[in-house]
Amino acid sequence: xxxxxxxxxxxxxxxxxxxxxxxxxxxxxxxxxxxxxxxxxxxxxxxxxxxxxxxxxxxxxxxxxxxxxxxxxxxxxxxxxxxxxxxxxxxxxxxxxxxxxxxxxxxxxxxxxxxxxxxxxx
Length: 122
Known about the structure:
alpha/beta, disordered N terminus
């Protein structure tokens, strides 16, 4: 999937939905989401809700449940692993690829202007 993105340096540049940063979930590769400076004020990852489990199958099942729970809120989810030059998804492998596939399967769309996944409203 191709997408376009711009670097988000602060909430004022976060594009549409920036005013709703009070509690925004961010997905991405660990290298893109584990440092505090990589998150905007009001953003959080799912990592605190994902303790290490014995098997990969159990780990993914837990990850999927937690992401689905967050998706039920209907709040946009920022994707932090996009190429800032081309806007394409990067590192679309592992759990991030599964998370993106889950978002798509559940009817969410990616907006390259804001790097946000949002539910399709009818």
